[in-house]
Amino acid sequence: MSTLSSGLHCTIPPEMLYHLVQIHFGTATIVKDFSLLQGGLFNTTYRIQLEHASYTDVILRLAPERGEMPAGSASDPLFSFERTMMAAEPVVYEYYRKAGIPAPNIIACDASGSIIPRTYMFMEFIPSKQLNHSSISETDKERLYHQLGAYTAIMHQIEGASFGWPQGDGTIKGSDQWSEVLHSFAEETTRKAARAEYMPGVGEEITAIFMKNKDLFDQVTRPVLVHNDLWEANVLVHVKNGELNIAAIIDGDRSMFADREFEALLSTESVAFHEGYDCPLNPSAEGQARRLAYQILSSYFNAYVHEHQVNQPEDGQKYRQRTLDLLEQWKQVEHN
After folding, report:
1. For 335, which DSSP code?
2. pLDDT band at residue 73, thresholds of 50, 70 and 90?
3. What angle is formed at CA 254 by the lines to CA 330 and CA 64, rounded to 5 degrees?
């Protein structure tokens, strides 16, 4: 399916692309070539080759167009955190850099909406391939997963002042209580699903989990940075010192300050990843219950997003079934 099947993914006229280049790189800059990159359903991404500029190979990413409806309302196609997440990306990568995690180089980010009604950013292109590239051997992949585990552990040492989503000005939009952030996220997803008449009653069940078990989630008191979208396509690798190494962890725009175990990648069965991460998951009944609740919320969110936001019904169906299966597991936990 083409990336253009998503209603959020929206190209810009070449004239606007040239205009944005000239604003940020100077009027003497020449666009030698540009191409629309495939694979994204949310942001629209171009690779641009430049002449007479301080950078010769750059990426331009544009967030979806801004709507007229109030942010966070059921009729808004975007979630409230999605409205501000690209503007927060430079802040996230600064955290990475300070901690020694390889990150993209952001050249410019404009969230003003004054030139185009979208947040956009220019980044330096990184010659690399994604971790899911078919040319990577199993041996190399094991070593890269070990490296990814080590970087994820470093990321989970970065503490925030509260739970929630980082903002472009360095603040965090959320709460001192982890349960409140989870409840609010579940509630917003439920509102949007109800408006679309999607999975009726399920969102209410999920929201109730976070309301009834407030104390369970508030046992977590340390908000740390989690990537929230850490899968192979968002890990770039390149050859350095004669072997493949991680070049950058990208697409950090969904990052939030959360329980470290909210990071979905921690549920991977990769031994190499966990050896690199070197910090066992909470083995208690409470820890296991929290992780199950996180999986339910994440799966429900993904079901709605794939079905109604980015028009990927096949994936939506998989997440829908997974949500229902996980909810059944939760009922077993409740009854025991």
Report:
1. H
2. low
3. 120
The DSSP secondary-structure symbol of 308 reads I
Residues in Cβ contact with 195 at an 8 Å cutoff, skipping those fewer than 6 apart: 74, 75
> Cα-atom radius of gyration of the chain, to the nearest Å?
20
Question: Residue 96 corresponds to which tokens in the numbers above?
Answer: 């990475």
- Residue carrying the six token digits 């994604």: 130
Q: Are strands 106-110 and 120-124 parallel, antiparallel or unpaired?
A: antiparallel
Tokens for 247, please give them: 């070049």
Whose structure tokens read 């979905």?
264
Q: Both tokens of residue 64? A: 């979806």
The number of residues in the chain equals 336
Q: Which residues make Cβ contacts (< 8 Å) with residue 245, sequence separation at least 6? A: 144, 147, 237, 238, 239
What stretches of 234-288 adopt beta strand conformation (E)?
235-240, 243-249, 256-258
Q: What are the pLDDT digits (tens) for 137-176?
A: 999 999 999 999 999 999 999 999 999 999 999 999 999 9
Assess contact for 102 and 144: CB atoms under 8 A.
no
Query: What angle is formed at CA 238 by the lines to CA 158 and CA 246, rounded to 5 degrees?
Result: 20
Distance between CA atoms of residues 189 and 249, nearest Å: 27
Q: Which two tokens stand for residue 163?
A: 């739970």
Give residue 40's region: left, alpha or beta (phi > 0; psi -120 to 50): beta
Q: How many CB atoms lie within 10 A of CB 14?
A: 10
Taking alpha carbons only, the member of 243, 30, 261 closest to residue 137 is 243
Written as one letter, the residue type at 312 is Q
pTM of the predicted structure, to 2 decimals: 0.93
Six-digit token pair at 209? 């989990």
| Beta strand 57-62 pairing with 120-124 | antiparallel
